[in-house]
Amino acid sequence: MRFTSCECEKVGWCERHKCEKGQMQFYLCRTSERHFQLWEEGKGLGQGTPQPKFRRLPLERCQNRGIEPIEKIECDLCGSRKRLIPVYSCEKFTECSEQRIGTRAERLRNLPCCLVCDEYVPVDPDSMSTNSS
Q1: What is the superkingdom listed in this entry's lineage (predicted)?
Q2: What is the spatial distance between Cα 8 and Cα 5, in angstroms, rounded to a whole number?
Q3: Distance (Å, whole) CA 37 – CA 29
Q4: Rounded to the nearest 10 degrees, how much is the dihedral formed by the CA atoms of 22, 25, 26, 27?
Q5: Does 107 or 15 have the greater pLDDT score?
């Protein structure tokens, strides 16, 4: 099955895009015009663009994120309905979440997630002060 101008015949080194492609990248290159175009522009997976940093839960609180959640959203991801995911205020993005949220709501579909955020900066417990007025 091929819907793009991909010339590769197998998984591995792609001479056209000058990168290594695993099974999923090979499939996307052949079937997704959007992904194929990214490789054509030199912006595809494996072409020297920094890959997101994946972190694991539980995370240290980010310096940019509020302490208490501003709301909790029911997650539709992976069949985990009725599981509430907290949404926090964020100095960088207005709102964010520690976890990805699977939802049909446009506003939350692209909600920044601390697990892969480039702006994530853990709070240094030693620098936190407790001021009482």
Answers
A1: Bacteria
A2: 9
A3: 9
A4: 120
A5: 15
